[in-house]
Model the fold of this input.
Amino acid sequence: MTDLAKQRLRIAMSALSGAIPHDLRRPPLGWTGVRAWEAEHVLELPQPYRTFVAEISNGTREGPSSPHGLLPLGHLPESWQRWEAECWLSPEPFDGTALRKPAVPFPLKEEWQWEYDYYDHDQHSPILHGIYQHGSILLGSNRGREFWILIVTGPQRGRVWWLGDGCAAPYADAGEEAEPEVDFVSWLQDWQADRGWWSQDLEDLD
Done:
């Protein structure tokens, strides 16, 4: 790791530590646990998530000021297995019990709204299934049918994406020069403080 990368990691870890109150933290997984998970899945997790899980907190608990919990490494929300997408256009239904493959590259580089685009089953269904099964780990969910993922393999590695009915989109519109490690820090700060755009969406539904 270069000196610049080390400096960026220190800044990110300071921000992450400050974003999570101690009473909401789960025990860190430790480096032995992180490396064991990586060996099992044949990949190395992106920073700063990797160090965060190993040294600070392997997921978070929900609290009065933080209604969303961060999932422990490799865990899936209960809603994942029973999720039924309203805009799932593939003729092959979504299988929440299927083995996920984080080492296979995530297939997208930019937002895709398949419910509005022309959808060809032969061409697009493998991509759609890959979005949900390949190249990522689950970070959290809201409203039971929307999920946040961290991309761990492929060109979007290190970035946070949102999966909703009929759409997959990056959390932030990051340019080519933006550092992907900032993405996870920004997302987690907003997620823990419940101040992201998803909160406004929930209010609109009330």
